[in-house]
Amino acid sequence: MTSRRAFLSSGGLALLAAGVGGVPSFLTRAASATPSGSFRRRKVLVTVFQRGAMDGLAAVQPLSDPMLARLRPTLALDARRQLVDLDGRFGLHPSLRPFGDYFREGTLGIVHGVGSPVATRSHFDAQDFMETGRPGDKRADSGWLNRATGLLGHEPSTPFQAVALTPALPLSLRGEAPALAIANLEDFGVMAPGAMAATGESLEALYAQTAGDLLSSAGREGLEAANVLDQARLDQYRPENGADYPRSELGESLRQIAQLIKADVGLQVAFAEAGGWDTHARQGAADGSFARRAADLAQSVAAFWTDLERYQDDVVVLTMTEFGRTVAENGTGGTDHGRASAMFVLGNAVRGGEVHGAPLVLDPDALEDGRDLPVTTDFRALFAGVAGPHLGIATGDGLFPGWAGRPLDVLRS
Amino acid sequence: MRRAPAPLPYAEAGLPDEAAAAHALNRLAFGPRPGEAAEVARRGVGAWIDEQLTPPASDPDSDPRLADLDQLGWTTEEITSRYLTPAFALRQAVAEGAVPDGFGPRDPEIRDRLQGWMERNDIRSVADLRRDLLRAKLTRAVHARAQLREVLTDFWYNHFNVDGRGGQILYVPTYERDAIRAHVFGRFRELLGATARHPAMLTYLDNWQSRAPSGTAVTFGRPPGRGGINENYGRELLELHTLGVDGGYSQDDVIATARAFTGWSVVPNRNEASTERVEAGLDRLASRGAPVVRDGLFVFRPNWHDAEPKTVLGRSLPGGRGIEDGEDVLDLLAAHEATARHVARKLAIRFVDDDPDEGLVGRLAAVFRRTDGDLTAVLRALVEDRAFWDAARSGPDGAPSKVKTPFEFVASAARATATPIEDVRGVLGPLRDMGEPPYHAEPPTGFPDHAAAWVNAGLLLTRMNLGLRLADGRVRGARPDLAVLTAGREPESIDAALQTYVGALLPGRDPTPTVTLLQPIVREPAFARRVAEAATQAEAETPVALDDDGVFGETPEPPFDPDDTAAFVVGVVLGSPAFQRQ
């Protein structure tokens, strides 16, 4: 595949112009203003939002808490026969086994007891608070990943600086910095080649002339992006190192993020999501609905990490979920909405092999409202601790307005 | 006696009759069909709206097109017993000895034998049901005369969302028909009650298994040995269906609500042995005087119902009762002030503006409360409100205030180009890519109702592309009839074509900005040649030579071809910013 740098310097620009009848404005900017090769070593933050609130205790279970089996008669796993022992204190759900390998290698860190300081058990509110990074402020309408993009300190010379592999732009990426949502890269790049190539430039102009409107900026960015992707021939992508992506929503999204990273189009902030974590009933233990979701998460991330072997120094993967679930199982073999959950951070600079966060105590007296794992790590501390050092941005008031906490020390400096 | 409708204040909003008709068709219908805005203006906008608010039960324009879909009239029991997943069908066929054991449904020979067994027994595949349901939804959106009923069915289905993934799709036909469509012009309490009892909702939000925890007094018989409550339905009932996320309820209210709905369950219908066992158990309970309630597959199980006293939102529910607990909670919620505001705001968002004026929300909420949740009265108040008509020009540069959702875009493009959709497979992929595959919204919140969630680069590209392909007849199963747009008269020049199609596709709007925007495109020297190239696709990827200064060299202009031009100009208009607005 032609890298972006080679493409710009080898006359690819002229070919592109020929194909669509005009040079996209961002490309001319990039070609004239950017020293060649400067995209190449930029860091990429890849985020995975697990919608529906993952049961952190099912994912990362204490190995020897006497309350667990009492509170979860059908959901708790056997510490010796079923769990993947991490550090003598915690065991991993067997479906997350690939994460255990990364943990032992020292590239995967786990943070337990993460959540929002504002107690809400509404998915609606909790997802918004986590995505805006402004817990409690319901009027906030910009996402923390969008602000992180704005703090990168250089002009977005590519429409692919911040990309969500989702049909709709998630709140995390809404805001002043340009961001792109793409449901499916293949369709995007090769979309009706004849008609789009014939009209691309003209429709770009059309949307550009629509003043001050949501439709205007979205249309312009989309056409610029489509022009680049057409050249990158992303439809011929083959994963490396035998990486085997699950044919799931998340697997597809991560495969496409890997494509964008390798296509060298200047990606720095990426967003993927996986639904189905709202396990109110028949959650299952070693098998069942939770196990299937967990296996999809672990296999998708593992395929991505394998595929990206050459780029691992530049990439960190961070998972997020809006809250955790009740410590006790409910009457239907599931769990209801709770408070804190567990999150994963994968990368060569991660302080891996460690379960970060305060110790868990499952005694009902120690639980919030007598039922939920209390929040001992503010999610902003984790996000700041990852995004700050990795992307080289300041994580104070600009990233999380009104927050004066300390970033969690989860990456090696 | 019904009061005479107030005059509609669209003239005050500066809208001539045809612009008002077009606005009404854009908001209360899935967009105008060719010539329809003029026709509605001639007959009277008020008269058309009256018709839309009081439609007859059957629809003369869409029903005949769906006559072959007999399952649309079936009961939930009939659907669940005759539509099977391949795996389930195989099990049943093996049990009846029609297919040997030990093979999977993908084995070619087994598949043929299974197919034969299914046809002989009139057993159908779940995948067919999914496709037929989408066909019915699109057919009604495109063709139904009672358009507002279809718009409202879409709106309320999304409000009371049920995800039709997997086997859950079997409950969707009757959920949409009996719980939603049947009540969209009725009272909110009836709509709420119908969704609360439907197996689709009871299974989607897990309430069907929720029962009194052990040690709790139950309405009849002994408390169940194991089990307990599930909070999911109770929480979404408060947060999404009625009060709204800021409606002033607490976690204790969620738990008390969940307890009030213990025992609201569903008779399993996929396995005859377990159905018989459950029904025998219920008959036994009933014969001993237990207040069992059966209504289709809905069942109230008095031996699962938590009969302790409860308090919901400050209202005490005495102990020892049964199904009345849930019904009382529904009454309480339907009459609550927060519900009136929540429903009023959602309707204002759908019909007026993504960020509606609080004054409008308050006026609609007041009507909701005064009329005991009469949804027709609320809608009438909405169209009699200046805000509804101002929305035709309150967007940027005097454009309409709202952007179409992906489904609204597809339906309105089909209506605008007189395109019957015979096969839904061509539009299903684009709808999925735009984030709105019908009946497949996973979270209980349904699909987002704000443009910010679905207007972005990727989605606009999909829209433009779909518009171009639709107009060009390249979407499978969707043949447009562009001659209808010009009453059979072909425009004689490309400029004339642009004027004609902008006027026809965007009736009631000022055509000048759109014509001005599109003119450079259609006049571009290389344009017609490129369109011709695109259409033939013969040498698709051949780059065109550039002059040294990066400008296209002279190429002879091909003769004007009205057919290609019509499709292209229509496609460009469908992909233009103006057509994205409603």
From TrEMBL, chain A:
It holds the Pfam family DUF1501. InterPro entries: DUF1501, TAT_signal. This is DUF1501 domain-containing protein.
Automatic annotation (TrEMBL), chain B:
InterPro entries: DUF1800. This is DUF1800 domain-containing protein. It comes from Rubrivirga marina.
